[in-house]
Every structure is written in C-alpha cells, then in structure tokens.
Design goal:
Largest sheet of chain B: none
Strand content of chain B: under 5%
Shape of chain A: globular
Strand content of chain A: 15-25%
Helix content of chain B: over 70%
Family (chain A): Belongs to the ABC transporter superfamily.
Structural class of chain B: mainly alpha
InterPro entries (chain A): AAA+_ATPase, ABC_transp_ATP-bind, ABC_transporter-like_ATP-bd, ABC_transporter-like_CS, Oligopep_ABC_C, P-loop_NTPase
Main location (chain A): membrane
Organism (chain A): Pontivivens marinum
CATH class of the largest domain in chain A: Alpha Beta
Largest sheet of chain A: 8 strands, mixed
Number of domains of chain B: 2
Number of helices of chain A: 11
Strand order of the largest sheet of chain A: 6-7-8-3-9-10-12-11
Distance between the termini of chain A: 28 Å
Order of helices and strands of chain A: EEEHEEHEHHHEHEHEEHHHEEH
Helix content of chain A: 25-40%
CATH architecture of the largest domain in chain A: 3-Layer(aba) Sandwich
Shape of chain B: globular
Pfam family, one (chain A): ABC_tran
Number of strands of chain B: 0
Distance between the termini of chain B: 7 Å
CATH superfamily of the largest domain in chain B: MetI-like
Radius of gyration of chain B: 24 Å
Number of domains of chain A: 2
CATH architecture of the largest domain in chain B: Orthogonal Bundle
Oligomer: heterodimer
CATH superfamily of the largest domain in chain A: P-loop containing nucleotide triphosphate hydrolases
Number of strands of chain A: 12
Structural class of chain A: alpha/beta
Chain lengths: ~325, ~325
C-alpha cells in the first residue's frame, strides 16, 4: 500500500461536564477515546457508526476544529494537534472539511464568490482578478453555473449549496479533506450526484478523504477502507470488500445485518442481528469492552478487560477478545 | 423592496389617521380644564368665556376637523412658505397654537428640539458605543468574569429607574464631588474652548443616565445575538478556512449578529425625538419631554395632541425603517 498521509495516534477528545452552583467539573463525555489509525495517500477511509458514537467529533478533532484532549495527528508529517495558533492557520490550506449541513455552514450574508474567495484572500497573495478567475474555475469544477457567483446561499437548492461547500473546501488545493456526512442532509436523488462529484474530484486532484457517514451502502460505494466506530472507539478497520463480506467484530456484524437487501425473497428470510438495549452514555462507558452491554457474543473477560485494537490479519484491525483467542 | 415601502407608506396613512382620532378622543374625554391653573378669584363666567374663546364650545367633530386642517394643511404650507419665501394664498391661516403660551406649537417644538437631540441623541450614540463591545466580549467569553460583571451591571441598568440613577448622580457628582452642574443651562452659548468644555460637562450627567439604561438593554440584545451566531455552523466553516479569530468574530459573527441589534436601535430612535420625559425633568433640560409634561399639566390640548401625534408618526416611520433595514442587511429576507 502507499504511504500514510494522515497518522492518528491515541486521539482522545473528552468534553468536561460542569454542574452545580460553582460549575465544578463533575465528569467528562468521552466522545473520542484513544483512536489510532492511518489514512493512506489518495484513499478514502470510510468512518461509520450510529448517531452519537463520535464520528463527527473525530473528524473535527483531526482538523483541530476542537483541541484534542490527548494524542497526535500527523498530516504530511506535521503534528496538527500540537501546533500553535499561527502555525495552525498556515497549515489549514492543506486540510479542509466539507460539512454536513450545507445551509448552516455557509454565512448567509456572503455571496458565493465571497465565500469561495475568502480563503484565497487569507492565504494567498492573489489580486482580485486572479481570485475571480480561481472562483470561476472552482465553480466549473463542482458544476455550478458561473452566473450564480453573486447569489446568496439561500437562493440555492441543498445539492447546489453542498457544491458551494465543496468548491470552498477545494479553493486552496488541500491534500486531505474530511467529509462530515456531506450527503446526509440531501435528497437521495442529489446524494448520488454529490458522491460522484467527490469521486471525480478525487481522481483529478489526487485527494485523500476521510468520509464520515452513517449510510453503509454509500460508504461501500465510495470507500477503499472502512472504520467502524462504537461509543468513541474504533471497533474494526478493514479494506472495504473484506469488511462487508466478512465482518469480524460482533458490532460490525450487527450493523451490516441492518442494511436491507434489495431482493424481497432474500430480505424475508434473512436473519438480522437485533441488538438489545441502548448505547451506554459516553460519560459513563461500561467497564471492559464498550460493547459488552449489548454484545450477543459477550464473554466474562469482556466485562473486565478492554480489548486492544490490533491487526489480526493483514490489513484487518479490530478490538475484540474473540479475535484474540 | 420599493413596492413594499410604498405600500407600507400608504397603509401608514389610515393607521395614523386612526391614531390621531384616538389621541384627540382620549384628550377630549379627559376631565382636564385649561382654566384649572388660573387663580381661583376668576369668576366662572369669565372661565366660560376663556373656554369659548379657545374653541371648546364647538362640538367634538368640528374641533377634530379643525385640528386636522391646521395640522395637515396649514402647518405644512406655512413651513413651505418659511423655507422658500413664497406666499401661498393670502398667507393668513390658522396654525396649531398652544393655549398656555399662545405661540404656535410647531415653533415651540423647533425651539426645544436642539436640547433633546443633543442630550438624548448623544445618549443613544454612547449607549451603542458601550453596548456593542460589551455584548461582543460577553458572548465571546461566555460565563467569564467579564460576562458575569456585564450581566450584573445590565441587570442594574434594567431594574433601576432613571429618576433614581439621576438623583444618585446629582448627589454624587454635583453635591459631593462638585464635578458637574446639576442643572442644564439652555442659554449657554458655545463660543470658546472653555464654554465648549462647560457644555460637555453639563451634558455628561443626563446623557450618561440615559445611556446606561439604554446600553443595559442593547448589550443584552447584542450578547444574545452573538451567542446565537457563534454556535452556527458557518463559524466553524470560517475557522476551518484558517481565518484568524479576529476575522471570524468581526467579519462573520458580528456582521450577522448586528442584524437584530440594528433594528432594535432603529426602533429606539423615536424616543430620541420624544425626549426623555423624566430625565429632562430631573436635570432641567428644557427639551421635548419637558414640553410635553408642561402641556399635560396645563391641559394644553393642542400642544399635547400635536406632540403625541408626532411621536406616533415617528414610531410608525421607524418601524418601517427597521423592516427595510432588515431587508437590506439580511439577504434571506425579501419583501414582495
């Protein structure tokens, strides 16, 4: 495999809980708890998991939109997690993010060309003519009509707004883009267009994606490798085909069994793994394995010892005691 | 937007006519007597004569029609004559005249306006200058010491009435420290540096009393609006673009947060012209607010009627201006 562009080591993001009259710290939400993984040059790593498992927090912490509690994130050899603010700003052009809600993530008082040109103004010495030319070029690249440059975000449809968000992210030729559920807020008919656009851009510009989603079939279409998150931890990371055909971790198995099959005859007889109970609170994760409260294959050791996340077969990482046997 | 403005202006005409009628009716129903302040030795027949000479014998609809004629036709014509030097018609027409002073009400207002604009207008400007930075910093550092103190002070500003802060100011700064005069001298002429300094000195207390009350209110609006916007996704986008915090806060957050605050400010403008009745009274600023009080005390119906109606016009106008400003500042809002 090619070289790692992004190296995440022991990334931890805890949000303190303050309560009481004096607002003392009474605990912490362990939104992201000790993640370690690499993202290879030019690949798309899919990050899946249910709502609230820490996917988006991971994406934001990697780009240092949050200050991580612990751990390091090296992008192209530079540790983003420990940069000071001015160096961080200089590092921003190479890493960008496409946000989930294309309506809320665009400033309502700026028109499209202002939105796309703002990073250029901040980070390059282009004159206004060069900026305009670049804005036009980017609008072409994402399939927006150039004539719309002076329109405001609210005048566009959801899919078009997401294209604005993509053009904005591309403005400074980033190497690495975190796509934080970029299609979750879009119509199904528009989702495919945006996903295809992301694929085309990746091919043309050699981009590396971290694609965060809860849509397992979309991740299967787009990702080269897939990481599955549960309660702040990655439980399994494997190449796409291997993960979908032979999931190792019981949680991945349950998650994949929830994807409906298009053939009604298969669907009627298919055995689904139904998980009992709710996800524990990330403020009070269970002792031992995070999944032990709901795992259908739970063993005694799972309630005591947290399984280590390690490579059990070439390229296949998981955190489960079943694999350690 | 243009069509919207015109339509709203047309709608304002029946609204204002209804308002003027209601004001006139209320004043007419009030059991006040323009001769009530005259010495008790004046016999009732003479009082009746005075009342009839003021036109109070006429039935209500006729008095109302006469006022409408004087205010909407005679006064504007008179103003045009005054500005251009033309003579329209014979130039002899009945103006709205104060019963107490026998001088035209409009002239009284023009006389009083500069004091009110100076003191109350300046207080609004100072309030904005105080409130915006406080609101911005309070929101940016929510629950910090600065925010807590700011919240406490604006609670004080909200809950303590100006007649109390005014008196406290006078006791403190005039009586004890002797820094500022407690009475505003309207006859003061500014012709030198020292007289200018004196003007500033006599303006400080009434201006600050009003500014603190207004700033308390505005800073809360500003803070709330900033907090709303700081949590928006586009702020995260701005940070992800690698903009400096200063640019994120001033260009992105502040500009969006100013939208509701600007409309609050616009709606506050009529109070500038309306004067601050209580504060003007405390510091003896003979502005519009004081004129209104004197008019009410003396049952000077034409004066009160005209002043109140002018306030109503200003309020209707600035409501419209606030709406139009909203449409200009927020591209998402378009009026058909």
């Amino acid at each position: 495999m090619s070289e790692a562009l992004v190296e995440v080591r022991n990334l931890t993001m805890h949000f303190d809980i303050h309560a009481g009259i004096l607002r003392r710290k009474v605990g912490a939400v362990r939104a992201v708890d000790g993640l370690s993984f690499d993202i290879m040059q030019g690949e798309t790593l899919g990050l899946v998991g249910e709502s609230g498992c820490g996917k988006s927090t991971t994406g934001r912490a990697i780009l240092r939109l949050y200050d991580p509690t612990d751990g390091s994130v090296k992008i192209d050899g530079v540790d983003i997690a420990s940069l000071n603010t001015s160096d961080l700003r200089k590092a921003r052009p190479q890493m960008q993010m496409i946000f989930q809600d294309p309506q809320a993530s665009l400033n309502p008082r700026m028109n499209v060309s202002e939105i796309i040109a703002e990073p250029l103004r901040e980070h390059t010495k282009m004159d206004s003519a060069a900026r305009d030319a670049r804005v036009r070029e980017l609008m072409d690249a994402v399939g927006l009509n150039r004539a719309f440059a002076s329109r405001y975000p609210h005048e566009f449809s959801g899919g078009q707004r997401q294209r604005i968000g993509i053009a904005r992210a591309l403005a400074l030729n980033p190497k690495f883009i975190v796509c934080d559920e970029p299609i979750a807020a879009l119509d199904v008919s528009i989702q495919a267009q945006v996903v295809n656009l992301l694929e085309d851009l990746q091919r043309e510009l050699g981009l590396t994606y971290l694609f965060i989603s809860h849509d397992l079939s979309m991740v299967r279409h787009l990702a080269t490798r897939v990481a599955v998150m549960y309660l702040g931890k990655i439980v399994e990371l494997a190449p796409r085909d291997a993960l979908y055909s032979d999931p190792h971790h019981p949680y991945t198995q349950a998650l994949l069994s929830a994807v409906p099959v298009a053939d009604p005859e298969v669907e009627a007889t298919r055995k689904q793994i139904i998980l009992e109970g709710d996800v524990p609170s990330p403020a009070k994760p269970p002792e031992g394995c995070n999944f032990c409260t709901r795992c259908p294959k739970v063993m005694d050791i799972c309630r005591k010892v947290s399984p280590e996340f390690r490579e059990h077969a070439p390229g296949r990482f998981s955190a489960c005691h079943l694999m350690d046997e | 937007m243009f069509a919207f403005t015109i339509r709203r202006l047309l709608f304002a005409i029946p609204t204002l006519l209804a308002i003027s009628f209601i004001i006139f009716a209320i004043l007419d129903l009030a059991p006040s007597d323009p001769t009530g302040n005259l010495p008790l030795t004046i016999p009732p027949e003479v009082r009746a004569q005075i009342r009839s000479s003021l036109g109070l014998d006429e039935p209500f609809p006729i008095r109302y029609a006469l006022w409408l004629n004087q205010f909407f036709i005679n006064e504007p014509l008179n103003m045009i004559e005054g500005w251009t030097g033309w003579t329209i018609g014979d130039g002899e027409r009945l103006r709205v005249t104060s019963w107490a002073t026998r001088s035209p009400v409009v002239d009284l207002i023009v006389e009083r306006m500069p004091q009110t604009l100076w003191v109350v207008g300046m207080s609004q400007i100072i309030a904005i200058l105080i409130a915006v930075p406080i609101g911005v910093i309070s929101a940016y550092k929510q629950y910090s010491w600065f925010d807590q103190i700011g919240t406490f002070v604006s609670m004080l500003g909200f809950s303590i009435p100006t007649f109390f802060t005014g008196l406290v100011f006078i006791v403190l700064f005039s009586v004890h420290l002797k820094w500022f005069p407690s009475i505003y001298d309207t006859n003061h002429v500014i012709d030198s540096w020292s007289s200018f300094v004196f003007q500033i000195k006599q303006m400080i207390m009434p201006t600050m009393v009003l500014a603190l009350a207004t700033a308390a209110q505005l800073s809360r609006y500003m803070r709330a609006s900033m907090l709303d916007n700081l949590q928006q996704d586009y702020v995260r986008t701005a940070r992800a673009k690698g903009l400096s915090e200063r640019v994120v806060v001033t260009i992105h957050v502040l500009r969006n947060s100013m939208i509701p605050v600007v409309t609050v400010i616009a709606l506050n403008v009529p109070t500038i012209f309306g004067g601050a009745i209580i504060t003007e009274q405390i510091f003896r600023v003979n502005g519009i607010g004081q004129l209104l009080i004197i008019g009410i005390q003396g049952a000077d119906i034409p004066l009160v009627q005209t002043l109140t109606f002018i306030f109503a016009v200003l309020i209707v106008m600035f409501n419209l201006i606030a709406d139009v400003l909203y449409g200009i500042l927020d591209p998402r809002i378009r009026y058909e």
